[in-house]
Design a protein that fits this description.
The structure holds two protein chains of two kinds. Chain A is an alpha+beta fold. Chain A is built from 14 helices and 15 strands. Chain A is globular. The two termini of chain A are 26 Å apart. In chain B, helix 1 packs across helix 5 and helix 2 crosses helix 4. Chain B is globular. Classes of the chains: A alpha+beta, B alpha/beta.
Chain lengths: 439, 168
Amino acid sequence: MSEKTNPGGKTYTIRVDHVTRVEGHGSIKVSTRNGKVEELKLSIVEAHRFFESFTQGMLPHEIPWIVGRICGICCVGHQLAASKAVEAALGLTVSAQSRRLRKLLNESQFLQSHLLHVYFLAIPDYVGVPSVLPLIKTHPEVVKRALKLKHLANEFTTVIGGRALHPMSNTLRGWRKLPDLDALEGIRDHLLAALPDLDATVGIVTSLKMPNFERETEYVSLKHPDEYALYDGDVYSSDTGMTAPVHDYLNITNEFTVPHSTAKWARWHRESYMVGALARVNNNYDQLHPAAQQAADTLGLRVPCYNPYMNNVAQVVEIVHCAHNSLAMLEQVLNEGLVKEDISYTPGPGQGVGGIEVPRGLLFHEHRFDDEGRCCGANAVIPTSQNINNIERDMKAFAPHMVAEMSRDELTLHLEMLLRAYDPCISCSVHMLDVEFID
Amino acid sequence: MSASSLTVAGVGSRHSTDDAIGLWLVESLGKLPGAVNYVQWENADALTLVHLLLENAGPLLIVDCAEMGLPGGEWRCFAVMPNTDAVLKHHSRNISTHGLGLAEALGIARELGLNTPVHIFGVQPFQLESCLSLNSGLSKPMQAHLPWLLEALQQNIDTLRKRIPQEV
């Protein structure tokens, strides 16, 4: 993309500062001189949270529950990634029944998270309103549908995991308290009844115009031979067409630091890579449920897609996939029933890595235990820190092209929209940003 | 329960001591026989509350911990006014789902068509301390106030049940 000079000679700085929410702090700074972008930085200034430190000394079964607190939206993902890591460390096996319940739990969280992001955080940008609140007056039925679907997803998580936020039923090797079959039947019926609402969701998002911007990058996700990989698989790169085992995550993420970010950045086969819904759909399109493939077609999402704004659309595709895939899994559970399983284990030494797809992308956990079975080392690499490098590079490609064509307000909005399209953990906070121009 | 039956909803979280007072009170009253529909909206975020408010067909009394600047254990029972524009205007430009609470949930629900009477029985907390435990329990002074609060809540429910047929 060539850099354009604005004939009018725009000289200004866009600073989008201080995101002061629990997800962390982020800011965007763009300096332009005579219509050219001189500097662009996406700064993440989150304070360290020390989860890797305060898991030290904990027993193996305590780890998944405590690390779930890393995120209120991806709590299931952290819990499951940690469960897998601890089980790998101790050589514990998980039954087909528990694996299916975990997949259901994970997909219920995908529904929760994607619905929240698409309806409440992303859509307002594309209909020209600052938040979801104006839509309450102009599109009350859309907001009611969003609330209904979100509530259904919360209930889904509650039935499988015991509660909607930080569920406690899953533990090492399986389920402490099995879901009630009648409640599962109820969720299946409600999911079935909600399918027209999902069609309507596809319809709404189809009507939204995504900015026309493309930048090809490396797309990284799990890949599994038998299924659309959300819970299990190896790590696949679109650059090489090859996979690497999850336990190789340090050689995949290659974390490094930059002065303007307290979060580490990541790169694999090139300068940056993307994880998340678009990466997954690009890499595993053929394994999407046929209804999700149909939705992708309706939404105009053709793979490979290089437009990062289309991550919003890919999330809608995954909403459809998770609903249909969950219905199939629920049917299996209801047909086969659930049996109480032995989940006993003996703490001991070991080291293990767990990888899982969460709504925002690939999540890795590593945990180590000493001879007494106490945690003596931990590491977590979250999707947003893997994406930050790629987001900034998208902005650096986007802004020079647009600075001549867009007003400051438009450019600011489009950069925020680009950041939000990735659905980073700071996404909610980005809606709270104050914009300061310095001429 | 008919649409005109009173629903009494406990709101709060058991992770933060006295924030659970609404849940405790409604749980206790729910064990008694009567023509009142008792429900627990535990750990419900604002968006969930909006959905639950819209799903509730009849008059509603919300029982919740409330910071009112009163001595700990004091209670107030008041009606939620139909016009809640002010709450939403406060958020017209800036919104994060993390910044929404019961007031905003009521405002959004009103905008989306909630037109049944809503009252709040608010109890001033003694202590609000988060903890990792699943159930931190009420503070000791709040526990001592429970009999008095239960009696007050029951009286307000009885009063509302007499008044509500005229309000619906």
